Amino acid sequence: MATARTVRGAVVIVTGASSGIGAETARELARRGALVALAARRVEELAGVERAIQDAGGQALAMPTDVMEARAVARLVERTVEVFGQVDVVVNNAGIGARLRYDQLAFEEIARIVQVNLLGAMLVSRAALPGMLERHHGAIISVASVAGLIATDPAYSATKFGLRGFALGLRRELRGTGVSVSLVSPGFIRTPLTAGRRGSGRLPGPEIVARAIARLIEHPRREAVVPSYYRGAIWAERLLPFVADRVLGGRR
Ligand SMILES: NC(=O)c1ccc[n+]([C@@H]2O[C@H](COP(=O)([O-])OP(=O)(O)OC[C@H]3O[C@@H](n4cnc5c(N)ncnc54)[C@H](OP(=O)(O)O)[C@@H]3O)[C@@H](O)[C@H]2O)c1
Question: Average pLDDT over the chain, rounded to whole?
Fold first, then answer.
């Protein structure tokens, strides 16, 4: 299934493209010659990313989209096909965190986290898949998290474990179809999502995730963990979960 592809000329939908990892991924892929469809809710921020890409000589199309809305998601894919001809790659990146301890979260907030982080990715993938399967060509890359491998914040981790389950299952179902499915699982990255955390200024920037996504398009594989120094902690969680309970427990 894992055939090498090129970013140049590929039509890529990036969700959550108005800031952070999504905006950087869109800029990186456009720099490498991709045609990028930018999806997120904030119209001005999205237009700013579109402008920056076009000013640098790239091709981008801002499409204000709420991934919680099935009809908006269907329109996103239809419009991308109208403008760019097809969809080669989906980058499921839109995501939100939980700002409070689980017992303090409102029901609506819990539902929103699941809808954006998990259902949103499932809907965008579903909308883009028929065209990819018809052409026996495509890639679906989902931005999960180290929190989908090491349980941390309950609501957020639930969605990222779920997103990994979705992607890994879809990867098996699509074996042999020409459509690859991959995950990128970042650790802490310097973006608006982590702004305000202690030491956030020293975190690696979103460009390392953007480059990992470009590599996954060119050389599809199951999962990339970035930065790679999180791999030790992931093994420790698997082999010594009771130690991880002690280290991570009661932290919020
Ligand atoms: N930063 C980290 O340390 C880190 C680590 C691991 C994984 N991640 C994952 O990386 C992804 C990007 O996060 P980030 O750090 O770049 O944070 P960010 O800068 O806050 O970006 C989140 C993006 O998601 C979009 N979004 C939120 N709700 C949406 C909705 N209903 N429909 C469409 N788009 C929506 C936001 O755009 P609008 O508000 O304009 O809609 C924004 O563009 C997330 O999935 C996050 O879980 C981040």
Answer: 96
